[in-house]
């Protein structure tokens, strides 16, 4: 990455290697829209962990882990 940005509440999950998801009745579903993740939305990493996106700044993603 290497870019300098201000604090942003949106990210492109594909660029970071993540997948945007939603949870319905305890089941994780991949969303059709994979263009952006906005603060408060969920994404998964390569190991299948679910995260709630908060913000990003420079090369750092701020997110909270989600337990089902």
Summarize model confidence as the mean pLDDT: 91
Q: Could you tell me the radius of gyration in angstroms?
A: 12 Å
Coarse morphology: globular
Order of helices and strands: EHEEEEEE
Q: Can you describe this structure?
A:
This protein has 68 residues and is mainly beta. The protein has one domain (10-66). Helix content is 6%, strand content 47%. The protein is built from one helix and seven strands, in the order E-H-E-E-E-E-E-E. It has one helix at 13-16; strands at 10-11, 19-24, 27-30, 37-38, 42-44, 50-57, 60-66. The strands form two sheets. Strands 3-2-5-6-7 form a five-stranded antiparallel β-sheet, with no helix packed on it. A two-stranded antiparallel sheet has the order 1-4. Strand 5 (42-44) and strand 6 form a beta hairpin. The N and C termini lie far apart (31 Å).
How would the blueprint of this fold be written?
Blueprint: E1 10-11, H1 13-16, E2 19-24, E3 27-30, E4 37-38, E5 42-44, E6 50-57, E7 60-66
Antiparallel strand pairs: 1-4, 2-3, 2-5, 5-6, 6-7
What's the quick description here?
With about 70 residues, the chain is mostly beta strands.
Protein traits:
single chain; 68 residues; mainly beta; five-stranded antiparallel β-sheet; two-stranded antiparallel ribbon; 1 helix; 6% helix; 47% strand; globular
């Amino acid at each position: 990455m290497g870019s300098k940005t201000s604090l942003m509440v949106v990210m492109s999950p594909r660029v970071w290697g993540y997948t945007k998801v939603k949870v319905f009745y305890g089941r994780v579903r991949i969303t059709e829209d994979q263009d952006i993740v906005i603060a408060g939305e969920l994404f998964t990493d390569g190991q299948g962990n679910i995260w709630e996106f908060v913000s990003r700044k420079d090369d750092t993603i701020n997110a909270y882990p989600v337990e089902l």
